Each structure stands twice: as C-alpha cells, then as structure tokens.
C-alpha cells in the first residue's frame, strides 16, 4: 500500500506537474466572473514560477547537498567481495519490446559496474531491480541488465539477479537475503550520487554493510552549481528529481525505513 500511495501522491506533488496544474486551475477560474482576477493572477504567477524554476539554478541547489553527501570512491587496495548495482538506469518495458537494452540518464550505473567487474574479477555482481511502475507491464529491470553484462563478457557465474524489488527499501532487503553477506566482506553499492544517502540509509537498516560508489552526478559542482539552465525543461526535470529524493528521505525516515534522516559517511 505504501508503494502505491507514494507513487500516486508524488505524481500530483511533482513540481512540474503541480505548476502546470495550477496554471490550468487559474485559467479555469478565470471563466468565473467573481474569480476572474484571482484566476488570471494565479496563472500568471505560476507561469513566471515555471520559467524561473526552469532556468535559474534552483534545481542545482536542491541536488548538490544530496550529491556531495558521499565522496567519490577511492580504491584503497582493500579487496572487494561484491558489487550491488541498484536499478533505475534501464527502461525495462522499452528494452523488452525492442529486444535490446534501452538506458536512460542513469546509464553510468551500468557502465561503472562493468568497469568495476573488470577491476575486481573475483567480486560477485548483484543486480537489484524489479518492475517498479504503477502502470505498465511491470517488466523487471535486473534480468535485462544481467543479460547485457553477460553479452559484454562478464562471467554469468558471478552475477546474482534480484528481480522482485520495486523500491529502494526492497532493494536492500531482497539483496541482503540473496547475497547473504558475511562479516568482513566488502560490498560496493553503485547508484546515482543524488540517490546515495537514501540508499545507504536503507542498507544500514537492513544490516547489509556497503561501501558507497556514487555515479551519475547531475550537477557540476563548484561554480557550475550557480550556472543557469539553457532550457526550462532541463531545470524542471532536475528539480523534480531532487525534490522527489528529499521527499523520499523524509518519507523513509518517518515510516522507519531508515534510522537516519540524512545518512552520511
């Protein structure tokens, strides 16, 4: 129930959806004589807000604290026993219909996992990702990624497929049950930098110790953080992403899925 409620609630609370909804509401209210001025004012204000939020670097300010919470991984020479790759980088339904892997903006998750697989040839590779959609055919992502890894030369015997999870919390729980990590083992967790705080939090809660390996940065850092966007759609897309992640952190903490509101190293 939590899964479906969170998906439906977020659809309406997504900044871009909310802004458009308020613009349309204002236009509807403008047809009523008594509410005409209010409706026109609401539509105008939300239109200006859409332009400002899309072009100004507000989305970068929202994403940067998430992405900089965990530093980039530095190889310290310690052995790596396993690699956990979280889903979210492949469009499962499109891949199934096309008969080939169809990636999205988070493709670095898969690319870096391939690189790590070659760097640590003895490490197991656990791919976690089921059919995390409310609507659609619910095609699982993990088997598609596993098939791709095999096609680029990764030994199938090293690959573990967890294809039931729909949420980050389930990623952690089902991955722990499948990997059965032993004391002293070192597992790298590969996911987007902006998603890493929540991911680490749920793996801690699941008692599955992991070493963060953040990828898929959406901000440039430094002075680039203050750079405006060239397209309104680009700024809004990143604002949606960052706002959703902050909402996820709060929601997971409030429902006991993480023991810390904003997990850190």
Structure summary:
This protein has 265 residues and is of the alpha/beta class. It has helices spanning 2-13, 15-29, 36-55, 58-67, 92-98, 108-119, 142-151, 168-179, 196-205, 232-254; strands at 82-86, 124-128, 159-162, 187-192, 211-215.
Report the β-strand fraction as a percent range.
Answer: 5-15%
Cα radius of gyration in angstroms: 21 Å
Largest sheet: 5 strands, parallel
Mean pLDDT: 93
Order of helices and strands: HHHHEHHEHEHEHEH
| Helix content range | 40-55%
Multimeric organization? single chain
Number of helices: 10
Distance between the termini: 31 Å
The structural class is: alpha/beta
Unreliable parts: none
Number of strands: 5
Q: How do the strands of the widest beta sheet line up side by side?
A: 3-2-1-4-5
* C-alpha geometry: elongated
Explain what the structure shows:
The chain starts with a helix and ends in an 11-residue tail after the last helix. Helices cover 49% and strands 9% of the residues. The protein is elongated, with a radius of gyration of 21 Å. A five-stranded parallel β-sheet has the order 3-2-1-4-5, sandwiched between helices. With 265 residues, the chain is of the alpha/beta class. The mean pLDDT is 93. Helix 4 crosses helix 10.
Provide keyphrases for this structure.
49% helix, alpha/beta, elongated, 9% strand, 265 residues
Lay out the secondary structure.
Elements: H1 2-13, H2 15-29, H3 36-55, H4 58-67, E1 82-86, H5 92-98, H6 108-119, E2 124-128, H7 142-151, E3 159-162, H8 168-179, E4 187-192, H9 196-205, E5 211-215, H10 232-254
Parallel strand pairs: 1-2, 1-4, 2-3, 4-5
Helix pairs in contact: 2-3, 3-10, 4-10, 8-9
């Amino acid at each position: 129930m939590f899964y479906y409620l969170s998906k439906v609630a977020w659809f309406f609370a997504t900044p871009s959806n909310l802004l458009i909804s308020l613009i349309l509401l204002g236009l509807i209210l403008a047809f009523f004589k008594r509410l005409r001025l209010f409706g026109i004012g609401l539509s105008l204000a939300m239109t200006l807000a859409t332009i400002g939020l899309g072009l100004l670097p507000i989305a970068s300010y929202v994403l940067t604290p998430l992405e900089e919470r965990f530093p980039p991984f530095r190889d310290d020479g310690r052995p790596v026993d396993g690699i956990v790759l979280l889903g979210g980088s492949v469009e499962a339904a499109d891949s199934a219909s096309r008969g080939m892997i169809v990636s999205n903006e988070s493709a670095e998750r898969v690319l870096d996992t391939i690189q790590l697989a070659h760097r640590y040839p003895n490490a197991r590779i656990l791919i976690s990702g089921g059919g995390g959609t409310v609507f659609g055919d619910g095609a699982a992502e993990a088997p598609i990624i596993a098939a791709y890894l095999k096609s680029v030369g990764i030994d199938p015997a090293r690959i573990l497929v967890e294809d039931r999870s729909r949420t980050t919390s389930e990623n952690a729980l089902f991955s722990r049950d499948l990997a059965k990590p032993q004391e002293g083992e070192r597992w790298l967790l590969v996911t987007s930098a902006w998603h890493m705080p929540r991911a680490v939090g749920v793996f801690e809660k699941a008692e599955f110790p992991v070493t963060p390996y953040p990828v898929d940065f959406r901000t440039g850092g430094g002075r680039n953080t203050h750079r405006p966007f060239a397209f309104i759609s680009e700024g809004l897309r990143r604002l949606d992403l960052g706002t959703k992640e902050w909402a996820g952190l709060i929601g997971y903490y409030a429902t006991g899925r993480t023991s810390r509101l904003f997990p850190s190293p």
